[in-house]
Amino acid sequence: MFAVLKTGGKQYKVQAGDTLRIEKLAAKAGDKVQFNEVMMIGGDTPTVGAPLVADAGVQAEVIDHIKGVKTINFVKRRRKHSSKRTKGHRQQLTLVRITDILASGADKSGVMAAVGGAGYTAVFADGQNAKLKTAQAEKARKADAGEAAPAKAPKKAKAAKAEAAAGADDLKKLSGVGPALEKKLHEAGVTTFAQIAAWTEADVADIDEKLSFKGRIEREGWIEQAKDMTKG
């Protein structure tokens, strides 16, 4: 009896007792793992998956974590750069021994699913497609949650601005005030005609300097217009 399983983006034809070098698994030496992505079960009654064979699994024992053969990557830049670089790489691998092939009953075996990569937390769960949560994913989730909390502050600020804008006067009624100038006034805290009508010479000078109005307040007569608006 043999099986064709998939792990690390590759497919392997295995039998009980075979030893495989595969992409690194999130397991320790001595752990028993189960490969749930079984493409085919061979034997007296072959079964081909579509794409996986339901309720089938291949169980194995983790022997050790090893490194593959060192590969050399040499990069030479084109002329005028006069530089070159040599990099070596050894792929992280896991050595496993196939112990059993299950044509059925894998969903209820209770054996840890074989998942690639490092930093995973083992989760024992029923089901062919039971997923394992990683420590990295959990950390990312917590980080996202932490970023989401302070993000609420701008929403409150926007709500406050919206509330202020809701009770504000239409400052565009003043001579020479368009949407851009109205926005500047709102940002400076000026939202009503009553505020403008109550400006003193010091207030006018301060606003004129802050918003670079260059004497526009007096030239356009905003204070007189604002007083008329408040009377109406």
Notes on the protein architecture:
- This is Large ribosomal subunit protein bL21.
- By secondary structure, the chain is α+β, with helices and mostly antiparallel strands.
- The chain has 7 helices and 11 strands.
- It has helices spanning 135-148, 152-166, 179-187, 193-197, 201-211, 216-220, 222-231; strands at residues 2-7, 10-14, 19-23, 32-35, 38-42, 47-48, 57-67, 71-76, 84-89, 92-102, 112-113.
- The strands form 3 sheets. It has a 5-stranded mixed sheet with strand order 3-10-7-4-11, with no helix packed on it. It has a 4-stranded antiparallel sheet with strand order 2-1-5-6, with no helix packed on it. A two-stranded antiparallel ribbon has the order 8-9.
- A hairpin with a 7-residue loop joins strand 8 and strand 9 (84-89).
- The protein is elongated and about 100 Å long.
With strands numbered from the N-terminus, the spatial order across the biggest sheet is: 3-10-7-4-11
Count of DSSP-assigned helices: 7
* Relative helix content: 25-40%
Q: Would you report the number of β strands? A: 11
Global shape:
elongated
- Rg, rounded, reads 35 Å
Largest sheet: 5 strands, mixed
Secondary-structure element series: EEEEEEEEEEEHHHHHHH
Percentage of β-strand residues: 25-35%
Distance between the termini: 95 Å
Poorly predicted residue ranges: 119-133
Give the structural class. Answer: alpha+beta
What's the pLDDT, averaged over the residues? 79
